[in-house]
Specification:
The chain is of the alpha+beta class. The chain folds into 2 domains: 103-373, Jelly Rolls (Sandwich), CATH 2.60.120.650; 384-431. Helix content is 32%, strand content 16%. The chain has a 7-stranded mixed beta sheet with strand order 3-4-13-10-15-8-7, covered by helices on one side. Strand 3, helix 3 (116-125) and strand 4 (131-134) form a beta-alpha-beta unit. The longest helix is centred in the middle third of the chain and has 24 residues, at 193-216. It starts with 12 loop residues before the first helix and ends with a helix.
Length: 434
Amino acid sequence: MSNDDAEESSGGGDDGLLRLRDEVRWACDAERPHLSPEEWCRGGFGPALVPPEEDVPPPPPANGDLPEPPAPDLAELEPPPEVRFQHSAAWEALRAALMAEPEELAPRLDATAPECAATFRRDFEAPGRPVVLDNTAWPDHWTLEYFADEFPEHRWRLSDTHGCTLCFEDYMRYMAVQEGGLLPPSTGDDDDPEAQKRRDLERQQRQWELFADALAIPGHDAPLALYDSQFGEFDDELATEYEVPPCFGEDILRHADSAGCRPPYRWILIGPGRSGTGMHIDPLLTDAWLTLTEGLKRWVMFPPKTSWESIGLDPAAPQLEAIHWYQKYVAERASMPRAVEILQRPGECVYIPAGWLHCVLNLAPCVAITHNYSPEPAEEDATLLPKLADLWRAIQADEPELAEKFPSLVEKARPDLVVHLAREREHGIEARAA
């Protein structure tokens, strides 16, 4: 569903539930067209609904209306029965295994250190080695609560490959189901018993609404996540609320901005636990960085020479969801190639070198900002020229419009680099790694 199709408000009752159910179904079909609705839940990782013992709305008929939760009666201070959820044993066990610190910690750099930029370029960016940056300037106010307050009705993109979007308010309803019904606790002045009862009743009402949502939306193994590359277009200030860590330097692809042919390169990522990104290599052999602003992420990275088969994947098959690959990895990691593993916390920035296979799983609800980039070589510094050659070869193969304009765009700003494009373009990342 496109942005133009859904300006209607969330609404309530049967109509709102049916619309939310249908939008989630459309998004699922677009996101993973190779999966049937049943296959989204095949691993049993989603939470189970534990209904209240009495006054339970009946399950919805196969093709009928969904039950509407009872309207709140703030004059009657007796709350309805508690609605409870229970996380699956499969998810609890996998999450516990992945919450442990990796046996071999990834290298780290202090982003505030005077020598950080030089060390990063020499020891990590040029040779292509992952690293975690500490003490970066990051938007610590970027939380789920912030986006829910600031952009409740804006429709966020789930991908650049299809047009499905979800209103953030609806996405929070979907996320609450996926997170096992987590709701904020009642707050206020506990010295006022009647006010506290009123708040408890309102919270119980939200739980009844969540119960109805759960009847409309299943608990998915790998829930839908938001991957929005157009956040700077609907709110100019969002793009100014964070800083690119200075050690990453200039991005040579910025020269394509003026011609309007630059592929998507920055995303706000939001998703519940169990969501994530399956094993992949970033497009155009670009480097990438990701700063986490809320939540907890688990990373596994394999160097460019790693074969897909050695990590239990078929490169010709559709991408395996992150949670299902991690289930395989936890059981079989002893027989897989050596990997770089990272448990990422808020404020930390992970650097992903070009060509590295990586898989990321959210262990809790997460908010993050990420950029793909290609470092512009400094004059009289040849260490990054091989990366430029890899980028140019990938552009020629995958981005014909950009390939037509890129040399002239670079020549205007850096004529010295055009010579190196011709000289280096035959050297690939595989040749350097051999």
